[in-house]
Design a protein that fits this description.
Strands 1-2-3-4-5-6-7-8 form an eight-stranded parallel β-barrel, surrounded by six helices. It is of the alpha/beta class. It has ten helices and eight strands. The two termini are 14 Å apart. The protein binds 6-sulfanyluridine-5'-phosphate (S5P). 6-sulfanyluridine-5'-phosphate binds at residues 37, 39, 63, 92, 151-153, 181, 207-208, 220, 238-242.
Amino acid sequence: SSPHLRSYEDRAQKHNNPAARALLYLMAKKKTNLSVSVDVTRKKDFLAIIDAVGPYVCLIKTHIDILEDYDPSIIEDLQALSNEHEFLIFEDRKFADIGNTVALQYSSGVYKIASWAHITNAHAVPGPSIIAGLASVGLPLERGLILLAEMSSKGALATGAYTEDAVRMARARRDFVVGFIAQHRMETIGARDTDSVGDEDFLILSPGVGLDAKGDAMGQQYRTPAEVVTDCGCDVIIVGRGIIGTGRDIDVGEVQRQAQRYQVAGWEAYERRLSR
Ligand code: S5P
């Protein structure tokens, strides 16, 4: 049956990618399908937010390049929090170049993403070579890759045939590609042209989640955890400003309350989906 009708626990036991297995295992253990997107520019806020939301999340999503005061010690602090609170790390790098270039961007440079991010993501636009390039670095480190099959923003071009081709690319590399950034499940796509669909288990990570706002002034579109998880069968809700807020000053107590609220909403939506 489709992965979204099975428990996270059952899926953890059967998944063959180590990063996906660890994520599903943590989701079941901590009863959370929440990923917080820590989109702030100061190290102090970044670490304070992660420490506050850590108990409520399975995955912390980073944009490491927006930190103004980045230094390598931030990664050590992030890893310590990851061990303490038990969450995985997802660097939302959205790679989009030829294989040779992305392999260098993933392994090297200032951030050395592959050395600390359990999961990262890539656009499908360059074709299969982007997966080959990233896999050459990530597979030996037991990492997982998420492909962007759809986007949450208004007017996104990743639709129709593009989305279908992204799914085909992922199916050809199920050792490394563990899921999609998408708004729906992808199993029904192109199901006729492959017989591997039956046992495939792609995680659907959905951004554009909010309980209060419907969107922002720059084309972001929000759906509720119930719409995303119960109705559309997605596995992980990615929440940024719904939890962190939009002001310059961070209220860590409020951030923690919101994280708990989204954890409960996401988990209830998952339990409802399984009981249907
Ligand atoms: O389609 C997408 C894909 C991503 S990864 N739409 C998105 O919004 N994202 C990311 O999710 C985006 O880069 C941001 O970090 C987060 C959404 O943040 P929010 O504040 O709107 O919840």
